[in-house]
Amino acid sequence: MSMRGPGGRGAYLSDEEKANAPKVTGELVKRVVSYLVPYWKQMAVVLIAIAASSVLGMMPAMLTGRIIDEGLIGRNMEMLVKLIIASLAVTFGSNLIGVLQSWMNTWIAEHITYDMRSQMFRHLQKMPQSFFTSNNQGDIITRMTSDISGVQRVITDTLTSILSNSITLAVALIAMYSRNWVLATLGVLVVPLFTIPTRSAGRKRWSLTRESQTISDEINGILNETLSVSGQTLVKLFNREEKEAEKYEAAARRQIDLNVRENMAGRWFRVVISTFTSIGPMLLYLVGGILMMKYNADLTVGDITVMVSLLGRMYGPVNSLLNIQVDWIRSMAMFTRIFEYLDMPVAIDNAPDAVTPDHADGNIVFNDVRFSYEPSREILKGINFELKSGKSIALVGPSGSGKSTIINLIPRLYDVDSGSVTFDGIDVRKLDLKFLREQVGIVSQETYLFNGTIMENLKYANPSATGETIVEACKKANIYDFIVSQEKGFNTMVGNRGLKLSGGEKQRLSIARVLLKDPTILIFDEATSALDSISENLIQEAIDPLIKEKTSILIAHRLSTILAADEILVIKDGRIAERGTHHDLVNAGGVYTELYETQFKKALEA
Ligand code: ATP
Q1: Model confidence, pTM
Q2: Cα 381 to the chain's mean position, in Å?
Q3: Which residue among 369, 373, 595 has the greatest number of ligand 1 atoms within 8 angstroms of its CB, and so is best to mutate?
Q4: Pairwise CA distance, residues 336 & 20, whole Å
Q5: Which of 141, 475, 483, 550 could form a disulfide with 522, with the two C-beta atoms 3.0–4.6 Å apart?
Q6: What residues contact 48, with CB distance under 8 A and at least 6 apart?
């Protein structure tokens, strides 16, 4: 008998689980039930199947009595054969129903899991950027995966086990009491007496299991951190191989000891259990014998055998039913965690009266925009500017001054705290979100490529793009020659996050991707990290004509990009410190002059 519940979870609540046990309100239960309601017909079938298979499953035990009394002791060959065949047939029937039941059960559980996962996935995609920057990615994934599989376990295991165990117990009790009340009562007393000590033994083992799981988590953490691409780069560059190996081995050694102890505790535990469980039947034989021989009770050998056999079938159900509370609390905790995510408000959503204009010019206006990521620290402190359709603006300024923050407000990755951002005269918060995001194309510093082929990454922007437009976009982005020079051409895999490509190649690929999207406004967040001059020229050649062609905002770190823009905004400490053309600003002796002297000019000379 395993003390670990399904899925390796223990049968006992940890202190933490006890402390965090959710308050089970009617509302919570109602909400959980609402996920089951669509499948009530299938569930009804499962209920009937469980009831039928539990009752049938008890029949052979009861038939044993007649096999002994009427068949063997009564020396009736025909009856014996009939009873044996009946017993086998009943077992077979019960198992057949069991197959139907577990198929149906899994089907329901899978559908409910699917419903919950899809709902969660859609909901999470509506979460604001801040949700993803402040929540641990692992935690988000855990809720999507293990918590929701936990729900599946509740349906396939917990619910089924409550029902089948209760029925089995009821049938056993009725059958026992209908034969002999003294022995039946003895059985009722014996079962809990022997299940309770085994529970306390199990609890000890469970605490070892938990300890070993903590180490297991620790080891997983080490593996995750050191065996990832970036982790290994860090390890190699800082010569940490030996230290990391020592850290890993120390944890793994502690695990050896614990696992051995846990396994041995299991062994002792089994000795205890099997001794205890065999005391029960012996007691029944003894008391049954006394009743039969000394008191001439109306009992047959078969009756006693049936009683013993029924008793043996009661341990399991009693143990499971004693654990129900644990399963219940754990399931409710899981549901609570899932609902917590589902209840998080969607901060950035379509306004109820959102408008979808039938065409877009691409005029952007920032009106006294203030914004902070965290309440205590204002990042943008009153930004005012206008970008006219067809024009381009370069944002320059020291690192951390708020340039990327400004552009994040345009496609509503975040919303302003006060003031407004308008698109063609309409507040972006009033625009249809899908429309707005269609209008804005961003080539960010950090290029987001997913692990797939170049073609797949390009088509992400526009799944219906034809081969011709793709080739054209790649030529414009100066990446076409590179792609066709690859052995697999457009089918070249880009690796995790595009790591198989160079920085410059990634940038050009994301320029091509944005071109395929064909947005009204192009935002280009120039990489700060230096690329070699050939790569840089390739990007420059791609981007310069685009700036002339499209309404664009450029976060610029290079002079040539700045020169291509119609207006320069110098951002410092969340404000526009200076504005004008390169000529206006370069000799003004302000922030721009300083930036020019320290940054752009040097790059120019290099
Ligand atoms: P760089 O040129 O280095 O990219 P930047 O001018 O684009 O800098 P922003 O990225 O806009 O600067 O950041 C402005 C400030 O906001 C920084 O001080 C940064 O620490 C802070 N910040 C940026 N993103 C977040 C976030 N998600 N949560 C909290 N603070 C943030």
Answers
A1: 0.69
A2: 37
A3: 373
A4: 11
A5: 550
A6: none
